[in-house]
Amino acid sequence: MQSDLGQKDRGKFSMKTLYLKMRCEGSNEVVWNRLFCGNPARPRALMTLWQACHGRLPTKDRLLRFGMLGDKICCFCEGPKSHDHLFFGCSVFGDVWKQVLEWIQVKHHPQEWNEELKWIIRHDKGKGHKASILKLAVTETV
Ligand SMILES: [Zn+2]
Predict the structure, then answer these.
(1) How far is ligand 1, taken at its centre, from the CA of residue 82, in Å?
(2) How far is residue 92 CA from its own chain's centroid?
(3) Tens digit of pLDDT for each residue in 53-104?
(4) Per-domain residue ranges for the chain?
(5) How far is the CA of 127 from the centre of ligand 1 (A)?
């Protein structure tokens, strides 16, 4: 992260720096970095997706590990709430994602987080409107 910062910004954290990193002015060390390139979603939604890609959202399994919760059962489907279950693995949120995909005319059956992320990265290639809509859809759904 340090290498792309200007000389005057080294060592300082700012939301602007983080936001610029998320908007593709940073490194390409991870495959999901492309999801943030030219993504027209709201900054807050991009931040949530960025946290999800890093596995840093406060999911029940993480809160249980920190001793902040007593169970990790999903509030919606009573499945095990974990990062992999998050969003696409949950039957309730999986249905929401499925409806969003139908709405943007993409035929696909939602899977767990890691598999879904790989699928999204494979299908968001290109600069066409369909790739852009898929990036926007996943960002705003997460
Ligand atoms: Zn669930």
Answers:
(1) 9
(2) 18
(3) 888 888 888 888 888 888 888 888 887 777 778 778 888 888 888 998 999 8
(4) 2-141
(5) 33
